[in-house]
Amino acid sequence: MEYRTYKGRKTAALGFGGMRIEDPDNIARSAETVLRAFELGITYFDTAPGYCKDKSEIIMGEAIKEMKKSGNPFTISTKSSRADGGELREQLETSLKRLNVDTIDYYNCWYVLTKKDWENRKKKGAVQAILKAKEEGLIRHAVFSTHLPGPHIRDVIEEGIFEGVTLGYSVINFPFRQEGIEAAVKRDMGVVVMNPLGGGVIPQNEDQFGFLKVGENQTMVDAALHFLLSDPRITVSLVGFRNIADVESAVASVEKFKPYGEDQIAYIRKRVESEFNQLCTSCMYCNVCPEGIPVWSFMETWNHLKLKGAEAVGDRLKWHWGTDIAELDKCTRCLKCERACTQKLPIMERFEDLKKAVKG
Ligand code: SF4
Ligand code: SF4
Fold it and tell me: 319 vs 307, 314, 316, 323, CA distance in Å?
């Protein structure tokens, strides 16, 4: 197992993402998947209220009873997306009970979607409630999880409230969140990445992402994980495990991990830049819309349309970006965004593609 340090604690670089457990109604069987991961050296376990039909925390709690008996160290991360401080506190207390712990190691101010949303978390008391729980010893580290673009992640980090960040990061969107990662590293924060397989897009599109494989007999999962593990700024890469077989295959990948050399990383970057030059990098230079349309959100969603198909669009807009296709009705076609786009992408054309995908 490859290990990193998260705020002074030794942590396995491969983490257990508790959002995809395949049979959550079977608590005992699901807990065995968690325990197998622990047995194989995984020490970071990430869960949340609502994951897996709201059973994920309960499954983790069941496994934790056994993990405690072993005396070996492990850490647990859970979350609340509540903006109201009182509601967050209630959710935190439920999580502590379900997880069978007195302290949650990493508690995420969860799913910070937009700058407005972030301001709301402060205004309605969520952030204060997290900090109070930390003072009381119910939380060890206050962290946040986000889908914000890199520059906005940096702004939140620079407020100096949090000790770690959890964000979606993979070879598809790695140019997009660089600023956030760099800001986190500057402050010696932990960086946990979720969705390292791009929501399945990477393993399912071997023809497009095959260049990630730099060694013989590498699988796509293996290659995508190696790409992330080769980045020393990333503390933990979370994989959403369904079952014991998933755990064993990811651990086997990490066991044979040898960091990619500088030349290999440079080669992968070059391939990403040249082959995905038609993809939006979410650099946000198009953040100039007089109507307030978050152009980059729609353009990044177009990447998913291209790679995953039309059915990916609605969910991506709603759950990842907190927006809706109707937002595009505000567009006056002034073309300011197209002129500002670093990649000179046909933004208007892509808006039409997205509308067509949603409306059929
Ligand atoms: S549309 Fe162009 S400017 Fe806007 S985020 Fe994408 S690549 Fe950057
Ligand atoms: S073309 Fe539309 S989306 Fe682009 S800046 Fe103008 S109003 Fe905004």
Answer: 18, 8, 6, 8
